[in-house]
Amino acid sequence: MIRSSYHTDRPARGRAPTRGPPGGAEKGSPATTGLPHHVRMTNTRPATVRTSPPFAADEATMLGAWLDFHRATLALKCEGLGAEQLRERACPPSSLSLLGLVRHMAEVERHWFREVLAGQELDPSGRYWTEEFPDGDFDLVDGADPVADTAAWQAEVAFARSAVEGLPLDTVGAGRWRDNEVTLRWILVHMIEEYARHNGHADLLRERIDGSTGE
């Protein structure tokens, strides 16, 4: 399993890029930034909702736009697939699956925006992982509900957006990460890196599942 050392206090494991040059809304898609409010897990592919970041903007706008772009990219990679396809570990021996990536990013959003930025005290166990199953977000997808897990991810994204609204990038989180103070700027940059890395994995998984390629 490839895992970042920065997203939680779990033992670290970490990397791959994603494609997606800027240049406006996706062809045939509504010009809406960010994660679709409802991702249909079906065998027909709905219209993708994703907008490329602006070429010129202030730093906060640019970082937020790139993060939303990558959130939407992961949603796009999952669209149109059935539950079993989303659970499929398409690149053995890795336990990675598209649903596992969705669950993982729900954990990552939860950790950085609730625990570190907002200072919320959360259960030491994550939503999906425990000390017994430190990779439960990836490893325990058999029988998992893609609709419920996607809704949980969307809820964390919605909280993150509300938590950062109006905050200066130099804002220091109310929580800590391994006794370190962390700024909102660092969190946003790290989240972009985390999504970009896993969207590279999602590219490979989706191609192995049904041959689909693209941005």
From TrEMBL:
Superkingdom assignment: Bacteria
Region (Disordered): 1-41
Residue ranges of coiled coil: none
Biased amino acid composition, Basic and acidic residues: 1-12
Protein name: Mini-circle protein
